[in-house]
Amino acid sequence: MFAGLDLFREPSGALGAATRPRMLARDEYPVGLWWPPPPGRTGVGRYREISQAGFNFVIGGNGVTNDQTNPAALEAAGACGLRFVLTDGRLQRLILDAAPGGRTAEGGARSPMRALSGPGRSGAPRHSARNPGEAVRLRLLALLKRYGSHPALAGINLFDEPGRRLFGILSRARDILREADAGLLPYINVWPSYASPRYALGAGSYERYLELYLSVVRPPVLSFDHYPLLSGGGITGDYFHNWAVIRRFSLRAGIPAWAFIQSVGFDGRAVGLAPRRAPDGPELLWQVNVALAYGAKGIQYFTYWSPENTPGAPVRFGSALISRSGRRTPLYGHARDVNAYLRAVGRVLLPLVSESVVHARERRLPLGASGFRRDGWVHSVAGSPVILGRFRRPGGRRNVRYLLVVNRSSSRAAKVALELPSRVARAYAFDRARRRFFRLRAPRRRGRLRPGMRLGPGAARLLLLQAR
């Protein structure tokens, strides 16, 4: 057993302890969901079901978006030890009104998430205040007064997928929450890389969009959504590009990266997206492990409850973890297993900093991916294609690194053999059941360790390498 490191020390970050939102000051890996049970199904029993599936926070939505429906959700979340990120439809409409150009500024931006959240849907009442920015401030203060002392409240969902025109008002909203000193997360989720620069981003490129977002809004978390699983097989062509860009910007800003994984199939052709397939268990696990390899510090599911398919809706959805009638689908059991793994392995990775991520043994590198090159920690990779994410502990031992070896395939098992340089004296593997590292008895060749492993579809193995 390897016991030389404090594996679960609180993560460091750009924010000081006094200003860091409570959700970021814990050593528990954030595992959340969006589209919770609707108002008629909100209760302790349903939220206990969420907790039993391994989630630890819930983002409001699915009708749980106002002062009539939020109190019951907060009470249910608190009774089950869950944290709640509150969504308020009125606040989001006010934020739209306060942007230059008002709601029309965002009118051309459409996506599966927008199709469900819909703060700017036609027919939504406009706010008539002469000073929309002041209206945003007053609404936030009203929410803090009403809900701020509730122990389950962890954040306010300010907006999903904002365009550039919203950055100024979102920055002001973030400052209001920070000045209130309530320890709440100003939650915002940004667009994926396949969003339209003109209609969605409001910037000439995705990189420029993120650069402006981080410099103007200054969020404590960089959260994004990208749904990669295409109907008929395969994944989106820019999935790894999106991850590479998010990783680079989150490291540059010194803030954690959070990601949504796809847990529902949908037909998004009406909003310009190719149809997506429903994932199976290995595909859920694969998305999680890819995210971990690229340095993700939080995972969220899109969606938990299956969205209703109303007539004329621009996106048609399949079944998620819970059906529209409230029954568990097979995905619920898959997610429970994946989340048990994620919370164990994620807790080890949470305080670490991503040092590199490379793809090995691929015939053709996907867009945005970096290919494997021999370095001071891994000399060669043989066998199946894998992704290698390497991490270090800030202020930790210079001779220690963590290596996550991820099966590149979500449908086939992988057999992999690493060759480590002679300077690596020992290698340890993480046992998630015992939550400990145990020494690998790997063969040596010319003084070099050669650990081998077999990985199931979508699976990964976490190693700890100790140099001389």
Task: Give an account of the 3D structure.
The protein has 468 residues and is an alpha/beta fold. The chain folds into two domains: 22-349, Glycosidases (TIM Barrel, Alpha-Beta Barrel), CATH 3.20.20; 353-467, Sandwich (Immunoglobulin-like). Helix content is 28%, strand content 23%. The chain has eleven helices and 21 strands. The chain has helices spanning 44-52, 70-79, 89-98, 112-117, 132-147, 167-180, 197-201, 206-217, 239-253, 281-293, 330-349; strands spanning 31-34, 57-59, 83-87, 153-160, 185-190, 222-225, 257-262, 266-267, 296-302, 316-317, 353-360, 380-383, 386-392, 400-407, 414-419, 424-431, 436-439, 444-445, 448-449, 452-455, 460-467. The strands form five sheets. Strands 1-2-3-4-5-6-7-9 form an eight-stranded parallel β-barrel, surrounded by six helices. The chain has a six-stranded antiparallel beta sheet with strand order 11-13-14-21-16-17, covered by helices on one side. A three-stranded antiparallel beta sheet has the order 12-15-20, with no helix packed on it. Helix 1 (44-52) packs across helix 2 and helix 5 (132-147) packs parallel to helix 6. It is globular. The chain starts with 30 loop residues before the first strand and ends with a strand. Residues 1-18 and 120-125 have low confidence and may be disordered.
What characteristics describe this protein?
alpha/beta, 6-stranded antiparallel β-sheet, Immunoglobulin-like, 11 helices, 468 residues, TIM Barrel
How is the secondary structure organized here?
Blueprint: E1 31-34, H1 44-52, E2 57-59, H2 70-79, E3 83-87, H3 89-98, H4 112-117, H5 132-147, E4 153-160, H6 167-180, E5 185-190, H7 197-201, H8 206-217, E6 222-225, H9 239-253, E7 257-262, E8 266-267, H10 281-293, E9 296-302, E10 316-317, H11 330-349, E11 353-360, E12 380-383, E13 386-392, E14 400-407, E15 414-419, E16 424-431, E17 436-439, E18 444-445, E19 448-449, E20 452-455, E21 460-467
Parallel strand pairs: 1-2, 1-9, 2-3, 3-4, 4-5, 5-6, 6-7, 7-9
Antiparallel strand pairs: 8-10, 11-13, 12-15, 13-14, 14-21, 15-20, 16-17, 16-21, 18-19
Helix pairs in contact: 1-2, 3-5, 5-6, 6-8, 8-9, 10-11
